[in-house]
Design a protein that fits this description.
By secondary structure, the protein is α/β, with parallel strands linked by helices. The chain has one domain (about 5-200): Rossmann fold (3-Layer(aba) Sandwich), CATH 3.40.50. Helix content is about 35%, strand content about 20%. The chain has 5 helices and 7 strands. The protein has helices at about 35-45, 85-100, 120-130, 150-165, 180-205, and strands at about 5-10, 25-30, 60-65, 70-75, 105-115, 140, 170-175. It has a 7-stranded mixed β-sheet, sandwiched between helices. Helix 3 (about 120-130) links the parallel strand 5 and strand 6 (about 140). The longest helix has 23 residues, at about 180-205.
Length: about 200
Amino acid sequence: MIIKKSELETVAVKKSQYPIDNTVEIAFAGRSNVGKSSLLNLLTGRKALARVSGNPGKTRTINFYRINDCFRIVDLPGYGYAKVSKSISANWGDMMEEYFQNRQGLRKVVQLVDIRHEPSKQDVQMYGYLKHYGLDGIVVATKSDKVSRNELNKCLKTIRQSLGMSAEDLIIPVSALKRQGHEALLDEIEKLITAVEENSENIEE
């Protein structure tokens, strides 16, 4: 897949602000400062579609991006940053649950983890959360350029074991800095969209 067109469609904090639920949505979740904005900019070929903040935890909204006029990428607010107040952290859970429970177009949540570190307690909880909603299965290990080739497989094994991923679940190492690995993620997104389209055609027949 090549993303030729991408634009911010809606910024929301509650259900009434979501765009019309009429297309496939692939959401992205991860701890603050894991490199989510950099990854989204790499995927879309835009330098500043998603703002890269010097202040982790600053993004506290759900950002909906219209992609190629055929699906959406949804940027979920980062979790687990220590300086975010408890009230905001609690509100994050409510915001996510409202989105996960009510969004018919949502097909998958891509979870980002830092390849250099064992997944945190919040990462593990998030993956369990996604399993509950049937949205798990794709993890992106960011900052893969920061580990050696020999360390890479060991790091990926640690992530898989810590999150309790199945053999069928995918871990895709990506480096936004080196512009590596994102093609594999785009291929998986294309597969998801194609499967939805084929299923819709079968239902219509």
